[in-house]
Specification:
The chain has about 400 residues and is α/β, with parallel strands linked by helices. It has twelve helices and 21 strands. Strand 16, helix 6 and strand 17 form a beta-alpha-beta unit.
């Protein structure tokens, strides 16, 4: 074991190890860390099988199975050998840091002069969502959608609901998605869903999903409700802003009331600038008001560059800070559809490699927010049509 303690830094932040510190295995000369570190800092799920003395890590579409004392593991069903077996030390399961990190697509660097391990996580480690607006696609080509989602680390699909589609079609699609560890959220909404006159439509949607979920098996259920309500696209947003905000709030209270105790995660799509809109009669931001009521906001942070003025990171910071304070989640969304009005808003013309590069740059800055819950790509059709440059 090294004389001075080993320091581990993830995305620029030093990690505390209150239970069992990292150490260097004398035989393999590899740094060992508690399994708990992998779940808390790299975002993997960890399960311990006492009878088999086996630990299983799952993250997105990757699975690692390690057995204490053995220097090989099953990685996505294939045997991979590594230096330094998993071990139990002072009642804690210790695993080889470099091996685990690299399987989960993180970069690992050793700085011997500081006795320090530097880990830079990959944007592929965080959840990804995408919208499907044409729900008939799950009828015509479900395998193509599931294949694309799996290949691109998609963990959530926001699927617009068409009540005319047979429930069996939804069942088959969601079951296939569940097998690939992909959640499906029921998507609905229009700008006029902020109007009180549309409350019946909102109720109808919620009841449809609740009735559907009650009639199918757990692996065929929608994981949540996803609302895309954008009243700022209506003329009334300018002509009667306070009245529009008041009715939007009433409809949000309705959603809160109708879904209470349902177990459904509620997610709302909002523009990145919504924090500048105040609840009528107060100085309280509308985005914070929504975050208090619901689980997650997807901020439509439609820029095709990560850093600098008016970039993805700068535009996302305010709502992410609010969400961190309120212990809620924020997903950062980017655009891939063609936009003739601006060359700054979409990755359409830049290609997939440029998008991945900008998302990685944004990811490294956004990890400072505890509310950061990954990215969403708008939307499936245009994303799937994008080219590698």
């Amino acid at each position: 074991m090294s004389a001075s303690p080993i320091r581990v830094t993830v995305d620029g932040r030093e990690v505390a190890f209150p239970d069992e510190p990292p150490y260097v295995d004398r035989t393999s000369n590899r740094t060992m860390v508690p399994a708990k570190f992998v779940s808390e800092k790299l975002g993997a799920n960890v399960k311990w099988n006492e009878s088999l003395k086996q630990i299983v890590f799952t993250h997105n579409h990757d699975t690692i199975t390690l057995k204490v004392g053995e220097n090989h593991a099953q990685v996505n069903g294939k045997t991979v050998t590594f230096d330094g077996p998993a071990a139990v030390r002072h009642g804690r399961t210790m695993v080889p840091l470099r091996f685990i990190s690299e399987v989960f697509h993180a970069d690992v660097a050793w700085k011997p002069e500081h006795n320090q391990v530097l880990i830079t996580t990959s944007v592929h480690n965080v959840p990804r969502g995408t919208w499907i607006w044409d729900s008939r696609l799950i009828e015509r080509d479900p395998d193509k959608i599931i294949g694309f989602a799996s290949d691109n680390n998609v963990t959530s699909v926001y699927l617009q609901i068409d009540p005319d589609i047979a429930p069996a079609i939804y069942q088959d699609f969601i079951r296939s998605a569940t097998e690939k560890r992909i959640n499906v959220e029921a998507l609905a909404g229009r700008p006029d869903w902020a109007s009180k006159s549309k409350q019946d439509q909102i109720k109808k949607f919620i009841v449809w999903v609740q009735n559907y979920n009650a009639s199918v098996t757990p692996e065929e259920r929608f994981a949540g409700l996803h609302f895309d309500i954008e009243p700022y696209l209506l003329p009334e947003w300018k002509t009667g802003n306070k009245a529009m905000l008041a009715s939007w709030m009433d409809n949000m209270r309705l959603i809160e009331q109708e879904t209470k105790g349902s177990g459904l995660k509620i997610t709302l799509d909002v523009p990145f600038w919504l924090n500048t809109v105040k609840v009528p009669g107060t100085e309280y931001s509308f985005s914070a008001w929504l975050l208090e009521k619901f689980d997650c906001l997807v901020i439509m942070d439609y820029r095709n560059f990560a850093l600098g003025r008016n970039g993805i990171v700068e535009n996302g910071n305010a709502i992410m800070r609010e969400a961190s304070t309120l212990n809620k989640q924020v997903i950062v969304a980017v655009e891939t559809a063609k936009n003739v009005e601006s060359d700054r808003t979409s990755f359409y013309a830049k290609g997939i490699e440029a998008m991945e590069k900008e998302l990685q740059a944004a990811h490294q800055k956004l990890t400072r927010h505890s509310s950061y819950a990954g990215f969403a790509i708008h939307e499936y059709k245009s994303w799937a049509a994008m080219k590698y440059e």
